[in-house]
Specification:
Strand content: under 5%
Number of strands: 0
Order of helices and strands: HHHHHHHHHHHHHHHHHH
Largest sheet: none
Distance between the termini: 131 Å
Radius of gyration: 46 Å
Shape: rod-shaped
Helix content: over 70%
Structural class: mainly alpha
Number of helices: 18
Number of domains: 4
Amino acid sequence: MVNSKVRNLLSSSVAVLAAVTVMTGVLAPAVATAAPAGTSASAAQTPEELRTNAAAVVGLTITPDLLRISERDFVYAIYQAAKQQGDIAREVQFEALDAYNSGRTSSFLSTWIYEAHQRDLDREAVYQVRRGERQPAATLLGFELTTILLAQDDKNFVFALWERAAKGSFVKAAAGTVYSGTPVEHKEFILRGIFVEHQRDLDAAKEAAEKEAAEKKLREARVKAGAVVGMDPALAAYLTDEYFVEQIWTGGLAPQDSEVWYQAYLSRTPEQWRAFIDTGIFEAAAKDKVNAIKVRAAAVVGIDAGYAKYLQEDALIREIRNRARSGSQVQAAAYRALQSGSPAQWRTFLETDIFTAAAADKP
């Protein structure tokens, strides 16, 4: 039977290429480079039953020609049939090629082919179990489960998982830790641990995406709020809520007598900062706009600006009517606005009608 020493000697044969060892220490099959010699009339022939049984191992169909050729050439035919089957007949390939090159064909046909075939079956049984255990992990990380990976023990397969896991992931960190562990820990990681760590990666990615979405929403809200007072959008997006609000009442972005400045100044907690940014600044700006209208209208009859801001629109119009010159167009227009009872008419009076009336009152 071929042993490791004999297999190493295969490299000296002109009929084969060198065998290589890849990770598992299992030799890859040598390949014959010359066709088998022709039939020799003097060659010893094996019994037909012996050849038929050997051929069945590799699925080779017996023909009259195969029964007539020399034993050595028949063994070569076995090698070719095993080679066509690929890795599942790897040991048979080794033994057949060794027997062909060494001339020990009788032992091969009577014994070694069956022993080699059993080794192939045993190896494939191990691979089948490993395939069932490892395929889910390989699929999870998106790589092909090759024969080389099946030949590795669990520890080296864990290393293969570590190599292929995303940098910075929980899977990679856990694989690196488990690699130095026990065989039981290796198996546990392959069967279950990697999926637990992958779920942690998914959860972390989801949390990060949600956090980024929330931060993006906050940035957009600050930019929108900052536009009210002319703040640079890049600065508004960069600042925290606290410094954004503080910038409004300390950075000269709003007049100190404005409602925007006052509400920003009053905001001192995270909840107040957020409320000011989301709604408060817009409500304050709207109030400042109304106050500006009232102050401008009140000035027509000399009402103090602070007092004008304090009064409601209907009350301000009533005060304007009282202070206007008796019989004037301003007084008449104020009276009509009050009589309408309409807030829309009050606003129209304060924005335009009072100035039209004041112009008409001029000599």
